[in-house]
Amino acid sequence: MVFLLVSLTVLHLVTLVMLLIATLEKSWWIWTESEITDLWYNCFHDNATNTWLCATTNENDWLQSVQALMILSVVFSSISFLLFLGQLLTLSKGGIFYFTGICQAFAGLTTFAACLIFTFHRKEILNDSKDDNRGRFGYCFIVAWLCVPLLLISAMLYVHLRKRQ
């Protein structure tokens, strides 16, 4: 039982860190090795100063929905971790962690929706400014997709987990 609780806690914290990286870090779309786009900025690498020069992205409805859904997924995952800790201390013997599992499932579904929107509407999100066949998805996009099954698996584990002494 202790091993299951520790491994579930580690899984939850790992997915939370992955969500934060996917939401805040650069590299949702890579145009070239020196030009990337994320949810918040378009960045260019300046070879002269060896720094990244970033400007805010042009806002559109699809981008704002992806931003909002990724922030919601971080919030839902954080709330579910706090609920888990609270339920671990207050739940009676034999109780099931339903609320924790539901919040974690919502985090997984919002991440899934954000990834789908970015996948299918990347041309509108990237503002048709360039040929999107020239670029590729970045590691943050892939990390966000990896979070989806991990969040849903942890949600199922929380729903089936019973508190014991």
Instruction: Kindly state the percentage of residues in helix.
Output: 55-70%
Shape: elongated
Q: Mean of the pLDDT scores?
A: 87
Taking strands numbered 1, 2, ... along the chain, how are they ordered across the largest sheet?
Answer: 4-3-2-1-5
Radius of gyration: 19 Å
Number of helices: 5
Poorly predicted residue ranges: none
The ordered string of helix (H) and strand (E) elements is HEEEEHHHEH
Question: Which class do the helix and strand fractions yield?
Answer: alpha+beta
Model description:
The protein has 165 residues and is an alpha+beta fold. Helices cover 62% and strands 13% of the residues. It contains five helices and five strands. Strands 4-3-2-1-5 form a five-stranded antiparallel sheet. The longest helix has 30 residues. It is elongated. The termini are close together.
What topology does this entry show?
Elements: H1 2-24, E1 29-32, E2 35-37, E3 41-46, E4 51-56, H2 61-90, H3 98-120, H4 122-125, E5 136-137, H5 139-160
Antiparallel strand pairs: 1-2, 1-5, 2-3, 3-4
Task: Give a summary of the structure in a few sentences.
This protein is α+β, with helices and mostly antiparallel strands. It has helices at 2-24, 61-90, 98-120, 122-125, 139-160; strands spanning 29-32, 35-37, 41-46, 51-56, 136-137. It is built from 5 helices and 5 strands; from the N terminus they run αββββαααβα.
